[in-house]
Specification:
The chain has an 8-stranded antiparallel beta sheet. A 5-stranded antiparallel beta sheet has the order 1-10-11-12-13. Strand 6 and strand 7 form a beta hairpin. It has one domain: 2-Layer Sandwich (Arylamine N-acetyltransferase fold), CATH 3.30.2140.20. The protein is 31% helix and 26% strand. The protein has 291 residues and is α+β, with helices and mostly antiparallel strands.
């Protein structure tokens, strides 16, 4: 089964400097450096499911190939991006580890997600959440020692916050910015649960089971049945979802336009996601047609 990717220091330094274009050390402030890495990663590395869909077989990927693709700025599926980030941060001297989260889908089917937890940056024992493998923005490390409820965060188009409940940490999104079908808990003040997680240590078996579910179970994620690609250029969202392109406006609203032909779809990929191989896009579309 897959294990977290490992990096040597040269690989990590080259990626940070040449792909992320982060060429300073944060002046000795590790949290400042971490936030620069996160922001630049979301700005330059696409989260997409083209690799998943381009293969007709639902199986775990070749992790060597995934690592190489991300090192070259091509992007990957969200869980792979977080596996990559955990390995990258470890090589850079951060206390980083992978953990699992439970996604709350609108159809009430809960599925798996991977996140990164980083320690050693704040108060003793405090963790920070890093999540670069998410279509929604998390453009900085989130401190998790907030007591019962965190401050609200406003990144790109999204307003979100965190809350502790029954030993779990809930990630909450503002309902007004999302699908009206979202299931709302009246106690959450107009927010809904996007995912939840805890801070317990996870075994390699836990991580492997999570990755296996994401990659091999078509029911476990919409990414098995919908074409997706997203990136946050300079903190502004661009999302391609099936035959629709969403671009964030200066007012931080998502403005959509239909892609009415194959030519328009391919042009959108070329304009906004040139790092994704055209051949893989064509294979992914063929897979969806056959589903």
């Amino acid at each position: 089964m897959a294990s977290p990717m490992s990096f040597n220091q040269d690989e990590a330094a080259h990626f940070v400097k040449n792909i992320l274009r982060v060429d300073d050390t944060g002046n000795g402030n590790k949290l400042a450096l971490l936030n620069k890495i996160i922001y630049s990663f979301k700005s330059n590395v696409a989260c997409h499911n083209i690799g998943l869909l381009s293969s007709k077989a639902r199986q775990l990927p070749d992790w060597t190939r995934v690592k190489t693709d991300i090192l070259n700025g091509k992007g990957e599926l969200g869980c792979a991006l977080n596996v990559f980030m955990a390995g990258l941060l470890k090589a850079l001297g951060f206390d980083a580890s992978l953990s699992t989260a439970v996604m709350y889908a609108l159809d009430a089917f809960h599925s798996s997600h991977l996140i990164v937890l980083v320690g050693g940056l704040g108060k003793p024992g405090e963790h920070f959440l890093v999540d670069v493998g998410n279509e929604h923005p998390t453009l900085e490390a989130v401190p998790l020692g907030f007591g019962e409820e965190s401050p609200e965060y406003h990144h790109s188009y999204l307003e979100y916050k965190f809350m502790c409940r029954d030993g779990r940490i809930l990630r909450l999104h503002n309902r007004g910015q999302h699908d009206s079908k979202a299931q709302i808990d009246a106690s959450l003040d107009g927010f809904y649960i996007f995912y939840d997680f805890d801070l317990s240590s996870k075994t390699q078996e836990d991580l492997d089971n999570c990755l296996s579910l994401i990659y091999t179970n078509p029911r476990a994620s919409p990414f098995h049945r919908s074409l997706r690609a997203s990136i946050f250029r300079n903190g502004m969202c661009i999302l391609l979802k099936d035959n629709e392109l969403y671009v964030e406006s200066d007012e931080h609203k998502m403005v959509s336009r239909p892609l009415n032909s194959n030519e328009e779809l391919m042009k959108a990929f070329t304009d906004y996601f040139p790092m994704i191989d055209v051949e893989l896009i064509l294979k992914a579309r063929e897979t969806l047609k056959m589903a």
